[in-house]
Design a protein that fits this description.
globular; transferase; two-stranded antiparallel ribbon; Aminoglycoside_PTrfase; about 15% strand; 10 strands; alpha+beta; Phosphotransferase enzyme family protein; 4-stranded antiparallel sheet; single chain; transferase activity
């Protein structure tokens, strides 16, 4: 149906301007009921979008600053692949102190979502020690030697507790900061995994000890290589994962 679905948020709902940063989705600022919001149109399944929108509602109620789904006129949180969410004010992190605030927000996210069910059809990094595929990941498309390196990195996380991870928090464009709050946007990569994957931040703002940082950084590089394979960025990330 495409952007025609926006009419389900009201006759006056309209797109305003395309927003940068969308890779798997078409993202625009939109106007709904006279207020600025964000619309994201993609190809995710209804089950996938239900998981994400329910998560965002829960996190909002728990006090985190996240984009909150705006219901359609008949109360649905998404329609025909389109989600409309509140617009978050703020700018990107600029200092190590800013990134430390981001780390604190991520740890609160992890605390709030212990035991959360996995996103439909996704796999965690440690699931991929045995599974071959999960959402955008297809290890069969990677060189066997690269898969072995990724799995060796993920094996160091085996047995650890899991929770929801944002999935791409060290991207400056995914953080909206003000003096009073830290907002995380673009939850398209969020899923259940080991929290270390979220904590590889600039200047080690999460304060991980050397050994813990190495484990997290290697696992994160392996994850991003597998998710993005085989573009230039994925090849670069795989090169950061040590040989077995």
């Amino acid at each position: 149906m495409g952007w025609e679905a926006l009419g389900q948020w009201g006759e006056d709902a309209a797109r305003v301007e395309r927003l940068s940063g969308g890779v798997a989705n078409d993202v625009w600022s939109v106007r709904v009921d006279g207020r600025l919001a964000v619309g994201r149109l993609g190809a995710r399944s209804d089950a996938d979008l239900a998981w994400e929108t329910e998560l965002l509602q829960y996190l909002d109620r728990a006090g985190l600053t996240v984009p909150v789904p705006i219901p359609t006129r008949d109360g649905r949180l998404f329609a025909d692949g389109l989600v409309v969410m509140t617009y978050l004010e703020g700018g990107p992190p600029e200092t190590r102190a800013d990134w430390r605030r981001v780390a604190g927000t991520l740890r609160e996210l992890h605390r709030l979502t212990r035991g959360w069910p996995q996103r439909p059809d996704w796999r965690s990094s440690t699931d991929l020690l045995h599974a071959e595929t999960g959402t955008k990941i297809d290890l069969g498309a990677m060189p066997a030697e690269g898969v072995a390196r990724c799995r060796a990195a993920w094996a160091r996380l085996a047995g650890r507790p899991t929770c929801v991870v944002h999935g791409d928090p060290n991207n400056f464009g995914n953080v909206r900061m003000t003096a009073n709050q830290v907002g995380l946007i673009d939850w398209d990569e969020s899923h259940v995994d080991v929290p270390d994957l979220d904590l590889v931040l600039p200047d080690n703002a999460s304060g991980l000890e050397d050994g813990a940082y190495d484990v997290a950084a290697q696992a994160s590089a392996a994850w991003e290589a597998a998710v993005c394979w085989d573009d230039e960025y994925a090849v670069k990330r795989l090169a950061e994962v040590r040989p077995v």
